[in-house]
Amino acid sequence: MDSVNKTLYIPLCGKSYVSKKGIILKDEKAEEIWDKEQFKLKGKSKSKWLSYYMGIRAAVFDEWLKEQMIKNSGAVVIHIGCGMDSRVLRVGTNNHNWYDVDFPEVITERRKYYNEDEYYKMINGDVRESDWLTKIPYTKHAIVVLEGVSMYLTNLELKNLISNIGNHFETVNLLMDCYSLFAAKMSKYKNPINDVGVTQVFGLDNPELVGDSNVLFKKEHEMTPSKYIEELEGLEKLIFRKLYAGNLSKKLYKLYEFEKTLK
Description:
The structure is a single chain. By secondary structure, this protein is α/β, with parallel strands linked by helices. It is 39% helix and 16% strand. It has helices at residues 3-6, 9-21, 28-37, 48-71, 87-91, 104-110, 155-168, 181-186, 226-229, 234-243, 247-252; strands at residues 76-80, 98-102, 120-124, 141-146, 171-179, 216-220, 253-260. The chain has a 7-stranded mixed beta sheet. The longest helix has 24 residues, at 48-71.
């Protein structure tokens, strides 16, 4: 896999770490894959602080997705940039058709650990193109998550992706995390993804720039809710709250929700 695809091991490591500690996120599949693959991370990419952040980020996405699935019983679920993530197991399909999408080489690795069934399918695709969407049967509503994806797409590529999704479905709810422009600039010098060879990322300060007339920016969400930080203990809780949930962190990381409704 290329350097961008190798970044999938960073959140996998984090989710395995918090799951083994019994906090934030229960993810037995992450534990299984991490223990078997034994991918060698180095530097900040394997820090416990980043692992806590990865666990919390995943939990926030899971919670939002569960809420959307309850509200929209007939919707399809699309997880873009799924990597080796076990969200489909943590959340459950609950009779929704669920599609995990990633590059062909990633899906090849993923198939070693996940099996398709009536409701769950894996799709090879480059989301910078639109042909992957043709593999998803028409459905009125789509619930879409992009976790750890947007920073590898230019604003134009991200806008085209959101537009393509909006053109394929009547209504859409979409959640994605982003770097700020400042974070993207600083990533050239200090970012855990540098440890797997990634040096170029992109940021977004104004989410309205990547929406269109169909899929509109709805609101910004809290990236690190206090209820998850409370699961940490003692000094670790204080340090995490200061470094990963403080004012500096809020300037670096954003969580944006978009929506397309019937007009």
